[in-house]
Design a protein that fits this description.
- β2, α2 and β3 form a beta-alpha-beta unit.
- By secondary structure, this protein is mainly alpha-helical.
- Helix content is about 45%, strand content about 10%.
- The longest helix is centred in the middle third of the chain and has 22 residues.
- It is built from eight helices and three strands.
- α7 runs antiparallel to α8.
Length: about 210
């Protein structure tokens, strides 16, 4: 099997050197005597070469091989997640750093391998494909075969093994807990975006009219 680690520092609150006993997240593969290829995600041709090597290794030796694709996350987990909170210096560099497509385009142009019109044509084609699929997804109707229920046919539900018990708690208790976890301690000045997130969450919990 070819194991690919998309190493974009998912847990960006912790530096790699502090999150494990070695600098590489793939070092666990050493216990399996599997080769590990570390490759810079910004180097497009190196990435292609490494994947070709991994495929050749698997086909030749019929054993596991690991690819550590080293990159970065440009944005947070979701709309309200802001990595600048925990890694401001690193994310200042990331925001000013060109993405792989831009870097490779500039390299090919400097070599004279392609023209600007050729690059624009490829970018426009990919963007059109993405936009067309995004728009068609709005009216997409899944078939029965695509639902998980068809895959799990024949498996018993939890209610067939034991009684379903009421695990709910009073709404007043939930609101009390919600208010507690969204209250910022006195004397502590949070980042303005964090303060906004806490205010929004508290309003959602305490205001019955909030969606």
């Amino acid at each position: 099997t070819i194991h690919v680690v998309v190493n974009n520092q998912v847990a960006f609150t912790t530096d790699p050197k502090e999150s494990r006993s070695s600098p590489y997240c793939t070092d666990v593969a050493k216990a399996l005597d599997a080769p590990v290829f570390h490759v810079n995600g910004d180097d497009v041709e190196a990435v292609v070469r490494v994947f070709e090597l991994a495929a050749e290794w698997r086909n030749t030796f019929h054993s596991d091989v690991v690819i550590d694709l080293i990159g970065y996350r440009r944005f947070g987990h979701n709309e309200i997640d802001e990595p600048m909170f925990t890694q401001p210096l690193m994310y200042q560099k990331i925001r000013s750093h060109k993405n792989p497509q831009q870097l490779y385009s500039e390299r090919l142009l400097s070599e004279g391998s392609v023209s600007k019109d050729q690059i624009k044509g490829i970018v426009d084609k990919v963007q059109k494909t993405l936009h067309d699929n995004f728009n068609s997804a709005k009216d997409y109707k899944p078939s029965v075969s695509e639902w998980l229920s068809s895959v799990w046919k024949g498996f018993m539900s939890p209610s067939q093994h034991s009684r379903i018990r009421n695990t709910g708690v009073p709404l007043s208790l939930l609101k009390e807990l919600g208010e507690t976890i969204t209250t910022i301690p006195e004397g502590f000045t949070p980042h303005r975006q964090i303060a906004k997130v806490y205010e929004t969450r508290k309003r959602m919990i305490l205001d019955d009219n909030e969606p």
